[in-house]
Amino acid sequence: MFAPATANTMSLPTLNERIAPEKLVRASDMLRAAAHPQRLAILDLLGTRRRLCVSDLTDLLGIEQALLSQHLTLMREKGLLGVQKEGKYSFYHLEQPGFLKIIKDLEGCCEHL
Hints:
- The protein is built from seven helices and three strands, in the order H-H-H-H-E-H-H-E-E-H.
- By secondary structure, the chain is of the alpha+beta class.
- Strand 2 (81-86) and strand 3 (89-94) form a beta hairpin.
């Protein structure tokens, strides 16, 4: 149960006051794009390995290349990932390394589930 608001808590700025609305929309779009177990695993791998090609990600995650490509495309479109083409290979990297903090927080939260 929540305690009623007091004069001290009433003066605290809300999230909408601390973060511009357009940034909140972009952040919520990124969170929705990341909200899948395999996409979280992709972000985690790219956070620890810096950059990986599609075939490496396929091998490490044990998922089909077509499904992986769908995940990568969505996260790239939402600004979570970047890609560099080198010859016939596409190397993916994190565009938003701050999402690794979210993954670490998830690990802590999952301990209590």
